[in-house]
Design a protein that fits this description.
This protein is an alpha/beta fold. The chain is 46% helix and 18% strand. An 8-stranded mixed beta sheet has the order 11-18-17-16-12-13-14-19, with helices on both faces. Strand 3, helix 10 and strand 4 form a beta-alpha-beta unit. Helix 3 packs antiparallel against helix 4 and helix 16 packs across helix 20. The radius of gyration is 23 Å and the shape is globular.
Length: 519
């Protein structure tokens, strides 16, 4: 295969069926089946149990109505409880009483306290930001004082409009490593991209560089062997599989590590939508051309990415982490032209929707336009209201979506939101060459955020995510130019086109939208 010739993706179904992961998934399905069958038997043969469950179901409904949280999640749970009184009630109680979920939340809170001394906000930065744009200073205050993510200056930002661009920059930076390499990714798949990076990591480990690598446990379903961390450990790489798939039902497994972080010696850091797989650099074709984005930070703001990685790494560690050894000195002087850079993370256990709050902030304070790229569009009521209000206020709101989706069910649900958005003035375009995996907001020639956070419930509420908010840095212009260049390859969706959708697509979208909070 030539360097630029994409390969074709092969189905991983056989690998799943005949693997340890396949066996684990089978056990989980058996457990779920036994759960449903047992509940139905009790319901059929014991009237007093059935009556008790109905009373409990009413109590559960009252609890759901009065509980804190997003109304969409409440509605989905209420539907489950009312449609399947026994199973839905017992499953809700099971979900809400799991020890593992509470333990992880407490552990992450402890780690945040440990890292707070290394994430202190320089108030001179906030004061300067307030003089420039008070609304952004308010966002900075919220993220620093409530979430522990400071705003920095003196940070260069490089924007990569494609995965291959990021890969081309990442490889030489990895080769320059002298102290440590930290990598955290959602998807890792064997191929040219990963093989190239792995060779460098192995070589660096032999040279005495501390290499830590962490990836999400869903990779073990079809991409990597379940014992892959041990294989990397034998090569000198400290490795973890975050939240591995295990043969028992647990809602902790619903909270995936969707972050993409690479930090090298504390001097340079990468994040964005790009995982470690050949489709992300267009060497393997899955859904047409893969449009993705990333940023590279060089300077003071890298420290936040370092701490985000170490927080996640230490969730299951017992030994004390020496955070100070990974710090880098702040740059001297002030480079005003670099503006303000604010890396941030989002967790399903902190009771704050950080990613969505950043998106709301950009939409609510735009004066001219907000341009968005996202692979999914499964929205809660608050996001629909914010998008439509901005458009109705005369703000140009444009969303670029894929034309070739990776998940048909998510795509048909996304289509159900198009009509309301378009009628309000939001413009929706689809990327004709293939699939958009970028997660980008850019506004008014001075503000942008690039990260891992999709416009769907899973990213906004259930996953571990991260992003970088950028203000008054020249890279914002590069992000907007990329948006305009991408827009030229897109097709604008019209209301007439929506009326011409197939009956199956319309019905499937409306039915699946009932379960949108699970997508």
């Amino acid at each position: 295969m030539g360097k630029n010739e994409p390969g074709k993706a092969k189905s991983g179904l056989s690998r799943i069926i005949f693997s340890r992961t396949g066996f684990i998934l089978l056990l989980i399905l058996i457990q779920l089946g036994l759960f449903i069958v047992t509940t139905n038997l009790l319901q059929s043969y014991a009237l007093f149990i059935n009556g008790t469950l109905r009373v409990v179901g009413v109590v559960v409904l009252i609890y759901i109505i009065n509980a804190e949280g997003n109304p969409a999640f409440k509605m989905t749970w209420m539907l489950c409880v009312m449609a399947f009184p026994a199973v839905g009630t017992l499953f809700y109680i099971y979900v809400k009483t799991q020890v593992g979920v509470r333990w992880m939340g407490k552990r992450l809170a402890t780690l945040k306290i440990e890292t707070d001394p290394y994430m202190m906000q320089d108030m001179d930065v906030v004061d300067a930001l307030r003089a420039s744009k008070p609304a952004n200073a308010n966002l900075a205050y919220y993220l620093a004082h409530h979430m522990g993510f400071p705003t920095y200056r003196n940070t260069e930002v490089t924007y990569f409009p494609l995965g291959e661009d990021k890969f081309e920059a990442l490889v030489p930076e990895l080769k320059k490593a002298r102290k440590y390499i930290f990598m955290e990714y959602f998807i890792v798949e064997k191929g040219y991209m990963w093989d190239t990076i792995l060779k460098i990591l192995v070589q660096k480990a032999r040279e005495g560089v501390e290499v830590r690598f962490m990836y999400d446990g869903t990779c073990a379903i079809s991409n990597l062997p379940y014992e892959y961390p041990q294989e990397l450990e034998r090569k000198g790489i400290r490795c973890k599989m975050m939240n591995p798939i295990k043969p028992f039902l647990s809602t902790v497994q619903n909270n995936r590590d969707h972050r993409k972080i690479c930090v090298i010696d504390g001097r340079v850091g990468f994040t964005g939508g790009i995982n470690l797989g050949d489709e992300y650099i267009n060497r393997k074709e899955r859904f047409g051309h893969w449009k993705d984005t990333a940023v590279m930070l060089r300077g003071d703001a890298v420290q936040s990415l370092t701490m985000l990685f170490l927080q996640m790494w230490n969730v299951d560690e017992r030994e004390e982490e020496h955070y100070g050894r990974y710090l880098t000195p702040r740059r001297q002087g002030l480079r005003r032209e670099l503006g303000y850079v604010l890396p941030y993370g989002d967790s399903p256990f902190d009771d704050e929707n950080v990613g969505e709050e950043v998106y709301f902030h950009i939409l609510n304070h735009a004066k001219k336009y907000v341009h968005i790229m996202t692979p999914y569009l499964i929205l809660d009521n608050e996001m629909i209201t914010t998008l439509t209000r901005a458009a109705k206020s005369g703000i140009e709101v444009i969303i670029i979506m894929p034309h070739i989706p990776d998940k048909w069910y998510a795509f048909v649900v996304a289509k159900t939101y198009y009509r309301e958005l378009i009628r309000a003035g939001v413009q929706i375009y689809e990327y004709k060459p293939g699939f958009v995996h970028a997660k980008v907001f850019v506004s008014d020639d001075d503000t942008a955020t690039v990260g891992t956070i999709n416009l769907d419930y899973r990213s906004l509420y259930l996953h571990f995510e991260c992003g970088v908010f950028i203000y008054n840095n020249s890279v914002v212009d590069r992000v907007e130019r990329d948006f305009q260049e991408t827009l030229m390859k897109c097709h604008k969706v019209s209301l007439v086109e929506l009326r011409g959708r197939s009956l199956f697509s319309k019905i499937a979208g409306q039915v699946l939208r009932l379960f949108a909070p699970l997508m």
